[in-house]
Amino acid sequence: MIPKSAQTSNPSWFTPKRLLCIFCVINLINYVDRGAIASNGVNGSLATCTDSGVCISGTGIQGDFNLNNFQDGVLSSAFLVGLLIASPIFASLAKSHNPFRLIGVGLSVWTFAIAGCGSSFDFWSIAICRMLVGVGEASFISLAAPFIDDNAPAAQKTAWLATFYMCIPAGTALGYVYGGLVGSQFNWRVAFWGEAIFMLPFPILGFLIKPLQLKGFAPMESKQTLTSNEANVSENGDDGVLAEDQAFIRGSSVTSKLRNQFTRFSKDMQELLHDRVYVINVLGYISYNFVIGAYSYWGPKAGYSIYHMSNADLLFGGITIICGVLGTLAGGLILDKMTSTISNAFKLLSGATFLGAIFCLIAFLFKGLSGFIVFFTVGELLIFATQAPVNYVSLRCVKPSLRPLSMAISTVSIHIFGDVPSAPLVGVLQDHINDWRKTALCLTSIFFLAAGIWFLGTFLKSKDLLNEDDEEQSTSTLTGERKPLLEASSSSQT
């Protein structure tokens, strides 16, 4: 048995609101980097020469490293390699290591990788650093949302998630401005070094401040005590094990731990894939993200072709930023007003996506620009209202110990099957049709598929498993009921 005194400790410096603010700032910096590397000030352009022999030197990353368009495109998506590989790993490690410390490790990797981008000397060096940026991001993406869900006020949980995810469009937009200003005024390398400096306090904070516990996971102190007790038994027991045999056992224990880790991961994956609510939610999210990814890549080009916009980049960017922020916040607030349940979340997902698809379709049917802007803006507001509810379902349809893996697999799935293949596939469709209006209408119609999939979720028997015990929590009888450290103080912060 573990002494009760080992369970009590000073409360963490983090309060619920501090935690939300810090996570939002981290998420904002992360997406500032996404926008910065795509900005003209950081990404730059190749050197060009006119027929008269006048040459203009290249700028930014592309100009300094003389990258072709394919290599330039690789840099913008290289982070996905690290993200897709590391997300399930961090989620799995959360069962044996403190999740808050894992975020600190991930943010440390992110900070050093971003600094490495600023110090890179050729294509491969910056490409590897961009992959490591994804590794660092993976820990945060998998584990931040469960922490927010644990510590948000009961009546505002979806609104808090919406605030967190609202930082995605806001950060990307800020990144365009930041990268453009810093890159043009100083140098593209300074933009990356600046990001590293902005992020540096947070991994330090993650290691110095008393770590938080995540609901569904044993406190590290209890695990360490149990391990220590087991070690004492093996050392002081009368089992007659020789010293050399003990050394062999310790050596083989590493292999055993790796095997157990893989076995546990396989078991958790099977549980996720057999959860119909989770599968339906992710399938709808994949279809949704397929359209969103293609919109972000091809939207300005389609707008320029259909409506002959001279400022297509600015117009589409502005609409996406405003609708992304307002729509995401509105979706979280509406679900809280409806009472946050999985069934209500599916109703909001299907309804908002269906109506948003109708408005977006009508927008592309307009021949005039003004009509397009009005209907497309309303459609985007409705479409972005799904961000908080879809992540709410991923968090609540699984046991607490599965939430990090649930978020990780959701993120991996929407990228692999959603926005990554959508841009080239829509490009193939446009090459075949050669009409951007028809291509945009075909693409937008996939929103109806997402709405239909989420509508099926309303008929599934769903249960909020936030307080569901599992086999890992059964050991909590040794240490008392496990609660997030902030739970006791959350009432005083609301």
From TrEMBL:
Major facilitator superfamily (MFS) profile domain ranges (all copies): 19-463
Membrane topology value: Multi-pass membrane protein
Localization in the cell: Membrane
Pfam families registered for this protein in UniProt: MFS_1 (PF07690)
Principal subcellular localization: membrane
Cellular compartments per GO CC: membrane
Residue intervals passing through the bilayer: 74-93, 100-117, 123-147, 159-178, 190-209, 277-298, 314-334, 346-366, 372-393, 440-460
SUPFAM superfamilies (alphabetical): MFS general substrate transporter
Region (Disordered) residue spans: 471-494
Keywords for this protein: Membrane, Transmembrane, Transmembrane helix, Transport
A GO MF label: transmembrane transporter activity
Family indicated by similarity: Belongs to the major facilitator superfamily. Spinster (TC 2.A.1.49) family.
Descriptive protein name: Major facilitator superfamily (MFS) profile domain-containing protein
